[in-house]
Amino acid sequence: MSSPIGIRHLQAFIEVARCGSFTRAAEHLFLTQSALTATIKQLEQDAGLILFDRTTRRVVLSAEGERFLPVAERLLSDFTAALTDLRARAQLQQGQVSVAGSPSVVTRLLPAALLQFRTRFPSIQVNIRDESAGSLEQRVLNNEVDFAVAGNHSQQPELEYAPLLRDRYGLVVPSDHPLARHTHLSWQAIPDDHLLLLSQDTGIRAQLTRFSQRGDIPIRLDRVQIEVSNPAAMAALISQGLGISLLPALAADVHSFAGLVFIPLHEPQIEREICIITRKGRALSPAAAALLDTLREHLHQTQLPAWCSAIN
């Protein structure tokens, strides 16, 4: 059986070809001359060809060696470039991160954390997707994003859900609404009519549906007549007096809800849990892990909106 041929054989062949001498090539490679000679012999035996013509004064390439030299140089160059690229990525000098998040996460949490990350790692490319809960879970499953930040929409068995923060549910009303003067409300006090909700593909709606089906909240979701797919559209409808809505505190703290009133709900006190969603068995790249660490660090350093708290 022939010896396995690897990068060291290419390095030895190229250096001998450049130096025209086993002695000088061995010195450049920090090898003994006998070790270098054995390496070249292994390469020639595996190829079944003589690559060098040896004379008493000089070592020169054979015709076959002349043809192989540019190929060996290209292979070694490609390998060196690939290894350099891996090291650069490990040292966060280059690379990219793809992350998906619910609208409130992308609007409220990521920008400040991303500013810190870009200051530390300016060469890393970052791709951000604003998705509904069901869509972003699928993107994690398909390896289209490194991780997602959102509520647990469907408890996919192939995904890991690591709790990041929790925020309390409340009622969102116009500032001139009769309920706007309350500092808190019970779920029983929510009017049955004019209730607007996010669509069923969102994590917020999925959670409210589970609460309702278990009897945790006295809300008939089947009576809702208007649904929208994102919180910004919901804010516009509420501002126009088309109804009121149930949202977690973080979702109601974005710019589009300015001028509206968030009233925390109790009896019972219901909270949403926002998680880091990753695929089981898939390690994060160094760049993705660094972005996630920066996000966690930001959450513990910044003042979160009222009724929101980070989970250690």
From TrEMBL:
<dbReference type="GO" id="GO:0005829">
    <property type="term" value="C:cytosol"/>
</dbReference>
<comment type="similarity">
    <text>Belongs to the LysR transcriptional regulatory family.</text>
</comment>
<keyword id="KW-0805">Transcription regulation</keyword>
<feature type="domain" description="HTH lysR-type">
    <location>
        <begin position="5"/>
        <end position="62"/>
    </location>
</feature>
<dbReference type="InterPro" id="IPR050950">
    <property type="entry name" value="HTH-type_LysR_regulators"/>
</dbReference>
<dbReference type="GO" id="GO:0003700">
    <property type="term" value="F:DNA-binding transcription factor activity"/>
</dbReference>
<dbReference type="GO" id="GO:0003677">
    <property type="term" value="F:DNA binding"/>
</dbReference>
<dbReference type="InterPro" id="IPR036388">
    <property type="entry name" value="WH-like_DNA-bd_sf"/>
</dbReference>
<dbReference type="Pfam" id="PF00126">
    <property type="entry name" value="HTH_1"/>
</dbReference>
<dbReference type="InterPro" id="IPR036390">
    <property type="entry name" value="WH_DNA-bd_sf"/>
</dbReference>
<protein>
    <submittedName>
        <fullName>DNA-binding transcriptional regulator, LysR family</fullName>
    </submittedName>
</protein>
<dbReference type="Pfam" id="PF03466">
    <property type="entry name" value="LysR_substrate"/>
</dbReference>
<dbReference type="InterPro" id="IPR000847">
    <property type="entry name" value="LysR_HTH_N"/>
</dbReference>
<dbReference type="InterPro" id="IPR005119">
    <property type="entry name" value="LysR_subst-bd"/>
</dbReference>
<keyword id="KW-0804">Transcription</keyword>
<keyword id="KW-0238">DNA-binding</keyword>
